[in-house]
Specification:
heterodimer; A: alpha/beta; five-stranded mixed beta sheet; B: alpha+beta; Phosphatase 2c, domain 1; 2 domains; five-stranded antiparallel beta sheet; 13% strand
């Protein structure tokens, strides 16, 4: 069984990252939703979901991202996805979600470091 | 009747009413600490505090450097802790608060350095040298402030333990103060310390400890599990052990270095508290995880019991194939429900009133009766829009407005002219369609995003012709999620490569596609093959 590791990290006062490693699917999407929820409640800035370490995501993960984006947008807070190639990037392309949610190749693009 | 399993949640939480009171108390303490620091700094005389007992000879008026640094520290704690209540650029103020606290911590390091190295030349006037205890307070609280407002649970715990350490240190100072010429706390009293600085330290420590009461130690202690009970029982015991040790050493002096012993015992008590806290967190998270999983399993079982008859009764509605007599075309459909559940696939292939062939496939995210019903609704809306003569891209743009807020759907809509073989295809974030022509297969990528935006998206269309023997293959993401395989092709591309070698009837291609899919998946698997007969 391929599990999911999620780690929340404060990048700056403006951004908290939700770093995902492993596969996001029906069995693990709750963990992702809870991690985003926790990041949302713990600070007042934006959240970037770092999927560069994720090997796979299905439509349930996609829905979690879309719903989170809606919530942040309604509150006027930024929400972004970091993804660099691979199956997750392809899924975002196919679904067109990357046209509505800010998508970057790495979280460094948001924090201006690196 | 099924037993109800209560899931306490993934994280323990302090009662919101208690949290609100504790937060208010912490805010009050921080304001008082800052206010009193300003009073001390400005030398304002407050009658009840002006006439405090003189205490031991080493206790004198607070040095100016101590007063300034304590004022900076308390201001830092105030700003950092008020982040959610500051109007305007709260990030700036929090950052400012953290910077002030960090500056105070750095100054604390300098004081400690001066104390141990006896570098009195740094100040020039020896009377201005702050006490060692002020240095410790500045260092510990200066580090505790940024930790206490962190989003990382471990840092919050460390920050709160730091505040407790200052609280205990101030208690040691008070003991020394009460004894007049004590052995206890001598290390902290020399060379000078004042009643005022101790009071500021106590107030600030409580304020920092209560900056985020719903996190850290109090959150752990409020856990309903056995770990929380353990911390509630033994936490105070661990904290009071140093005080007990101090009392014993005072009554029966064992050494003339009891001040050091006091320092070590306080540190040991707090270190044990940290260990206990992390142990409890690990213990509780395991128990909570188990209870949560049990509750999820129970809910899933109950849900299946309630939904299974409804959903199975609807099975025939999910997929419709009614093409009538359209000569020269073959249609084959396959459907395999997700394992252990019903997901949101729905499809229809239909002979339209104008003689064209219409095909629709919809996949809603989610499992159970609700997404299944919505999948049917979206599919039928798309189909109806085709029936009234709209193009696939027009149908998609219109129906997008009918998709509810909490639904995410991919869809593909096709209109085929049976005479010319002209195909117009619009895909809203759906897995690529595959066009098979003379041992070659090409992917038709989506022409717009998923149906969820309600932004009047302008969808586009693919337009191509199917010659005799050519096929159009549609499938849902349960058949071929985008996943890199060993040969570095995504699954749709692997499927296309497989289909390129298939030149048989539509039914054979449909079986081939379903055979490609993993039968153990929890997602629905839907396949539709439309082939122009050779």
């Amino acid at each position: 069984m391929r599990g999911l590791k999620i780690h929340n990290r404060e990048l700056s006062d403006e951004w908290v990252s939700v770093e995902v490693e492993g596969e996001v699917d029906l069995a693990t999407v709750k963990d992702l939703e809870q991690a985003i929820e926790s990041a949302h409640d713990d600070q007042t800035g934006g959240v970037v979901v770092d999927l560069t370490g994720s090997s796979f995501m299905d439509s349930t993960g996609l829905k979690a991202l879309v719903m989170a984006h809606r919530r942040f947008s309604a509150e006027g807070r930024p929400f972004a996805i970091a993804v660099s190639g691979g199956p997750v990037s392809r899924l975002l392309d196919l679904s067109g979600v990357n046209t509505t949610i800010q998508t970057v190749a790495s979280i460094d693009e948001l924090t201006g470091s690196g | 009747m099924a037993e109800v399993v209560a899931a306490p949640g993934r994280h323990t939480a302090v009662d919101p009413r208690v949290e609100a009171k504790l937060t208010a108390a912490g805010r009050l303490m921080r304001w008082i600490a800052f206010g009193y620091a300003v009073v001390v700094l400005l030398g304002i005389s407050i009658p009840p505090l002006r006439d405090v007992p003189p205490g031991p000879s080493v206790i004198r008026d607070i040095p100016a450097a101590s007063a300034i640094s304590l004022a900076v520290l308390t201001l830092g704690a105030l700003l950092a802790g008020e982040v959610t209540h500051t109007i305007g650029s709260n990030v700036f103020w929090r950052r400012t608060g953290v910077a002030l606290a960090a500056g105070a911590a750095a100054f604390g390091v300098l004081i400690i350095f001066v104390f141990f190295s006896n570098r009195t030349d740094i100040w020039g006037d020896r009377l201005e040298i702050p006490a060692f205890s002020v240095g410790v307070v500045l260092l510990v609280l200066g580090v505790a402030v940024p930790l206490s407002v962190s989003v990382i649970e471990g840092r919050v715990i460390a920050g709160q333990v730091g505040a407790l350490l200052v609280f205990s240190l101030a208690a040691v100072i008070y003991l020394g103060y009460a004894y007049g010429d004590p052995s206890v706390g001598r290390l902290f009293l020399a060379p000078e310390i004042s009643f005022q600085s101790s009071l500021i330290a106590v107030l600030a420590a409580v304020g920092v400890l209560l900056t985020r009461p719903a996190r850290g130690l109090l959150s752990t202690a409020s856990s309903p599990g056995s770990g929380g009970r353990l911390l509630r029982w033994f936490g105070p015991v661990v904290l009071f052990m140093p005080a007990l040790l101090l009392l014993i050493t005072e009554i029966v002096p064992l050494t003339d270095r009891v001040d050091v012993l006091a320092f070590v015992s306080v540190g040991l008590g707090l270190f044990l508290l940290i260990l206990l806290s992390f142990f409890v967190r690990a213990l509780d998270s395991t128990a909570i995880e188990a209870a949560t999983l049990a509750a999820q399993a129970e809910r899933a079982r109950t849900g299946l019991e309630q939904e299974a008859p409804v959903v199975s009764g609807m099975a025939d509605l999910f997929h419709i194939a009614d093409v009538g007599d359209i000569g020269g075309w073959e249609v084959a459909t396959r459907f395999r429900p997700g394992r252990g559940t019903v997901a949101g696939d729905s499809s229809a292939v239909f002979a339209l009133p104008d003689g064209a062939l219409g095909a629709v496939m919809v996949d809603l995210t989610g499992h159970g009766a609700d997404p299944a019903i919505w999948a049917i609704r979206v599919r039928d809306l798309l189909l109806q829009t085709l029936i009234v003569g709209r193009s696939p891209m027009q149908a998609m743009g219109l129906v997008e407005w009918s998709v509810p807020d909490d639904v995410l759907a991919s869809a593909i809509v096709v209109r085929i002219d049976p005479e010319s073989g002209l195909v117009r295809l619009c895909s809203a974030g759906h897995p690529p369609a595959i066009v098979v022509k003379e041992q070659e297969a090409a992917l038709k990528e989506p022409t717009g995003p998923l149906l969820y935006l309600r932004h009047s998206m302008l969808y586009e269309e693919h337009e191509f012709a199917l010659a005799a023997g050519n096929s159009l293959v549609l499938f849902s993401d349960g058949v071929a999620d985008v996943q890199i395989t060993r040969n570095e092709l995504t699954e749709p591309e692997s499927l296309a490569a497989l289909l390129a070698a298939e030149s048989g009837p539509a039914t054979r291609a449909a079986d081939l596609v379903l055979g490609f899919a993993d039968p153990d998946k929890t997602d629905d698997q839907t396949v539709m093959v439309i082939r122009r007969s050779p």
